[in-house]
Amino acid sequence: MDMETTTRQGSPRGPILGAALGLGGALLGAGASLAAGLPGALGALVLAALAGALLMRGPGLAFLAGGKPSPAPKAQAKADAQAAKAIPEDRIDTLTGLANANGLSAWFVDKRARLVEDGKGIVVLVANLDAFDEVTRLRGKDTADSILKEVAKRVSAFTGDEGIAARTGGDEFVAVATVVPEKAAEWAEEIAGKMAETIGRPVELGMSAIWIGGSVGAAVGKPSEGEAVLARGREAFLKARKLGLGRYVVDRGGL
């Protein structure tokens, strides 16, 4: 209701028509004054010219021509920024809203130059849920999807401000975070343990709680070698899964 009222009050029709009529009157008055040889004719012409300039600069010109006023500079800049941030659909996992495998690969390509310039390293964490196929079979697809959405939220908490979270397979999740190289191994050890603990917490669905854990593999490396670091993270995950549910392994090489 308020928006509709504001729109109506902000319509340029009244001010523009009034300005047009005023301009016409001023021109007629100036012509009459010139015909009568009155000294006020010059002033009338100046006022008419100023009114015409204002009318031409105002938003009403587009309205009279059947078009729309141009957006304000700030609004246009904001729209351009939002368009630039738009992510292609083929890079998004539609279920969770995270990046998919394509999106993760694109992130490695898009970010590596700047991260190298900033002297950053990356930590790649790979998490996989335990016996998820069995959960899907016993609980149904809707419940399985709800679990994946919850795990996606938990994984996203480990990316930091510059990183990315992705669902790269049925129940495989990846979190990439940037880090100062000197602290990369220590930090990877800490967050890999926290991720394993976090995804092992029960998922509350309605009146029931579903316990589902997983294993985590982590690897540190250079941003210019993102895909290779991801591969080492997956190898670390396989080692962690052999150790048992809720375990993690960190590959410290690569920096």
Defining key terms:
alpha+beta; Alpha-Beta Plaits; 2 domains; 5-stranded mixed β-sheet; 10 helices; 15% strand; disordered N terminus
Please state roughly what percent of the residues sit in beta strands, choosing from under 5%, 5-15%, 15-25%, 25-35%, 35-45% or over 45%.
15-25%
Separation of the first and last Cα atoms:
59 Å
Helix count? 10
Strand count, sense and barrel status of the largest sheet are: 5 strands, mixed
| H-E order | HHHHHHEHHEEHEEEHE
Overall geometry: globular
What share of the residues lie within helices? 55-70%
Q: What is the CATH class of the largest domain?
A: Alpha Beta
Number of domains: 2
CATH architecture of the largest domain: 2-Layer Sandwich
State the CATH topology of the largest domain. Alpha-Beta Plaits
Overall average residue pLDDT: 76
Class computed from helices, strands and strand pairing: alpha+beta
The CATH homologous superfamily of the largest domain is named: Reverse transcriptase/Diguanylate cyclase domain
Question: What's a concise summary of this model?
Answer:
The chain has helices at 2-9, 13-36, 40-57, 60-64, 73-85, 101-117, 132-139, 141-156, 184-199, 226-243; strands spanning 121-129, 164-167, 172-179, 203-205, 208-210, 214-221, 248-251. The chain is an alpha+beta fold and 255 residues long. It has two domains: 12-75; 88-251, Alpha-Beta Plaits (2-Layer Sandwich).
Structure description:
This protein is an alpha+beta fold. It has 2 domains: 64 residues; 164 residues, Reverse transcriptase/Diguanylate cyclase domain (Alpha-Beta Plaits, 2-Layer Sandwich), CATH 3.30.70.270. A 5-stranded mixed β-sheet has the order 2-3-1-6-7, sandwiched between helices. Helix 2 runs antiparallel to helix 3 and helix 7 packs across helix 8. The chain is globular, with a radius of gyration of 32 Å. It starts with a helix and ends with a strand.
